[in-house]
Amino acid sequence: MSDEQRALTKIISPGRGSFWGELLECWRNREFLGFLAWRDVKVRYSQTVLGMAWAVIQPLTHMVIFTMIFNKVAGLQSPEGIPYPVYTFAALLPWQLFTTALTRSSESVVAEARLLTKVYFPRLLVPFSAMSVGLIDFCVSFVILLLMMVGYGITPSWTIVFLPLFVLLTLMTALAVGLFLAAMNAKYRDFRHVVPFMISIWMFITPVAYPASAIIRKIPAGWGWIYNLNPMTGVVEGFRWALVGQTGLAPGMLAVSSAAVVVVFILGLMYFRRMERSFADVL
Fold first, then answer.
1. What pLDDT digit, counting tens, does each position of 194-247 carry?
2. Which of 46, 86, 136, 236 has the smallest CB count inside 10 Å?
3. CA 282 – CA 116 distance, rounded (Å)
4. Is the pTM of this model over 0.85?
5. Alpha-carbon distance 129 to 104, whole Å?
6. CB atoms inside a 10 Å sphere around CB 68
7. Closest CA to 101 of 52, 168, 161
8. 110 Cβ partners below 8 Å, 6+ apart?
9. How far apart are CA 109 and CA 89, in angstroms?
C-alpha cells in the first residue's frame, strides 16, 4: 500500500472494550452509521408501487378502525372536546415509530449476518441504523396529522416545542427492547415470531385508542404508577399533550415512564454488548 493510499484509508478496529468506550466508538464511526441508515431507507422504498404512502396507510387504517369501534360503536369520547380521529392519530404517530423501530432493530443482527461475520465495526451501529426507516415514516405521517389538525381547526400550542423530546423517548424505548430481542434472535431464531405477538398485546395496554386516565381510574388508589411503568404510556400521552394540548399528561406519569425507558435502555445496551461477542459464531 502506497503512502497516499495509506493516508486515505480509514482503519476501523475494536475500541477500548469498556461500556462507555463502545458508545464513544459508535460516535467516532457515525459516518458508517449514516451509510447504513441511508442504505436501509433506499432498500425500503426502492421498487415499490406506493412508496412512502405505506407510511400513511397503516396509521390511517388504524384510525378509521378505532373511530368506528371505540368511538361510534362503544361510545368512547376523547377528552376536552378533541376530535376523536385527531386524538387517535396523534397517538398512532409515536406508536408507528415505536413498532417500526422495534421490529427492524430486533431483526437487524440476523439481517446483517454476512456483514457482521466479515468485517469489524461497532455492532451497536446495526440496531441504531435500523431505526432510520421509522423516522422517515414518522415525518410523512406527521404531515398528514398537521393537515388533519388544520381541517378540524386545531392550532398547535407552544407545547409542540417538546415534541423532539418524546420522539427521543420513543426511539429509546424501541431500541431498549430491540437490543434485547436482536441479541436473543441471533441465537434463537424463533424469537422473531414473538415480536408481532408482543406488539399486538402491547398496543392494547397502551393508551392509543383511549386516555390513560380511563385505566388509572380502575386501578386502586396509590397503584396507578404500575400502569405508568409501560414506557409508551408517558410517550403517547406526551405526544397528545405536545400536539393537541391535551392536559391529561401528569408529571408523575411522565417521570415514571421516562425512568423505565432509561433503565431498560441501559440494561439493553449492557446485554447486547455481552452477547455481541458470540454473534460471529452463531450467525
1. 888 889 899 989 999 888 888 888 888 777 788 888 889 889 988 988 888 766
2. 46
3. 11
4. no
5. 9
6. 11
7. 168
8. 182, 185, 186, 189, 192, 283
9. 31
